[in-house]
Amino acid sequence: MSESINLIALITEASLLVQLVMGILLLASIVCWVLIFRLSARLGTAKKLDEHFENWFWSGEDLAKLYQGIQNSPDRHGLANIFYIGFSEFLRMNKKRQPKDQIIDGVERKLRVGLGRQQQALESGLAVLASIGSVSPYIGLFGTVWGIMNAFLGLSMTDQVSLSAVAPGIAEALIATAMGLFAAIPAVLAYNHFTAKAATLYDSRALFCDEMTGMLQRETYETSSVPTAETAIRAAQNVQSPLV
Length: 244
Hints:
mainly alpha; 244 residues; 8 helices
């Protein structure tokens, strides 16, 4: 080739619809990379905070003291917030002298709710990455088809048919496909990568919830083992005085 490809010239000389498609794909690519950096930082921070809390949790410190330490912290995330939600429910139901099974069921429900909310916040943005990865190639293909169609329509209006007459139009149309792939490939790779990391964190947190439930089950106040007021009164009435 005697001349190098001037991408800027090809983009500026493209039709208005093709330029609009390129603008959409450029915006999608920018959004994709912003989400990639945000998800990378978020998942990395979540993993570090979870590891720090687990080390604190398994250090042998009393759960009540651990709960008080977390309660005084206004910024709770990840496992710390899940533990706080579950232990708060445990203290509330245990204070009401609820049966052991009801206490454990209530704690498990709260842990599932806390786990789901934390995971939902953790995976925020993955759906957008999936949409960019699946839709961008088709948007680029639409721009390419439209550009090639305009190139051939323009060629039909010229007296001399040659490849040099239609080549610039086809080249500028193919840029839309390239931009679609440029936006889609990182989005698909990032989506698969971050989905796997989020699933690993979810499994680790779910295992922690099971272990915490087992620990609370051993510490649960057994209501049936404590006599109620009515039982105590009946027992006192059945006691015979030794003088009778």
